[in-house]
Design brief:
Distance between the termini: 36 Å
Number of helices: 10
Number of domains: 2
Strand order of the largest sheet: 6-7-8-3-9-10
Structural class: alpha/beta
Shape: globular
Largest sheet: 6 strands, mixed
Order of helices and strands: EEEHEEHEHHHHEHEHEEHH
CATH architecture of the largest domain: 3-Layer(aba) Sandwich
Helix content: 25-40%
CATH class of the largest domain: Alpha Beta
Number of strands: 10
Length: 250
């Protein structure tokens, strides 16, 4: 079996008496989409934050490409190739779509967002930005300010920014949110190909998308993984049906 690119073992995190991550074991393998699903408040976004370095774990280990990265901060993990898209858009509204992606490309090179004048005039940066926008279907909106983009276009823009970071892993938090049916279908096809560039740890509430895309699905409830398997195994799992899919298993 291929060694995992990302491996979590015994990962735990509490805020006071609230345990948001409870001894989670999870891995991500090359070429894979591993979906993390669960009800609201299950701890999915907290787990992604732990992996990205936005939160520090209380216990457990995170290994990336065989290296323990538990002591690395968010910027250092991004430099290694852990790239995250966000459930809530975190873009610069006054900048164009192209400008936002060019800044992401520059951050990959310099590890800080800066030198804004250079971003606007550097043909390498703008070329990288246009390539990424073309891939997500936003090339025609390259000069549009982020404040004028639709919610769905902003989600696609975040993915373009992630592409510009040239990651070794994608950490995606609700990429389908706000896209509509046509946008979701297009993004499903795109992610299905993208997994071959870098594996994807995917949080997603669109179960049709999850069942189409995921090689494996882990179900998180109250900070604990209660089940793991392929789409058919998760569909038929009685505890998952009761806790998440809203069925009684009868």
């Amino acid at each position: 079996m291929t060694d995992p690119v990302l491996a979590l073992s015994g990962l735990s995190k509490s805020f006071g008496a609230l345990k948001v991550t409870d001894g989670v074991d999870l891995d991500l393998r090359p070429g894979e989409i591993h979906a993390l699903i669960g009800p609201n408040g299950a701890g999915k976004s907290s787990l992604i934050k732990l992996v990205a370095g936005e939160l520090a774990a209380d216990a457990g280990a995170i290994r990336f490409a065989g290296r323990d990265i538990g002591e690395l901060d968010q910027v250092e993990r991004a430099r290694l190739g852990l790239t995250r898209t966000f459930q809530v858009s975190s873009l610069i509204p006054e900048f164009s779509a192209r400008g936002n992606v060019a800044l992401a490309a520059q951050a990959r090179r310099r590890s800080v967002f800066g030198f804004i004048r250079q971003v606007a005039t550097d043909p390498d940066l703008t070329g990288e930005a246009m390539d990424a926008l073309e891939r997500v279907g936003l090339a025609e909106r390259a000069g549009t300010r982020v404040s004028e983009l639709s919610h769905g276009e902003k989600r696609l823009l975040e993915i373009a920014m992630a592409l510009a970071m040239k990651p070794r892993i994608f950490l995606m938090d609700e990429p389908m949110a706000g896209l509509g049916q046509e946008g979701s279908v297009r993004l499903i096809g795109f992610l299905d190909k993208l997994r071959h560039e870098a594996p994807i740890l995917l949080i997603e509430h669109d179960m049709d998308a999850v069942f189409q895309l995921a090689d494996r699905i882990s179900v998180l409830v109250a900070g604990r993984i209660i089940a793991r398997g392929n789409a058919e195994e998760i569909r038929s799992h009685p505890e998952v049906r009761a806790a998440y899919l809203g069925e009684d298993g009868a």
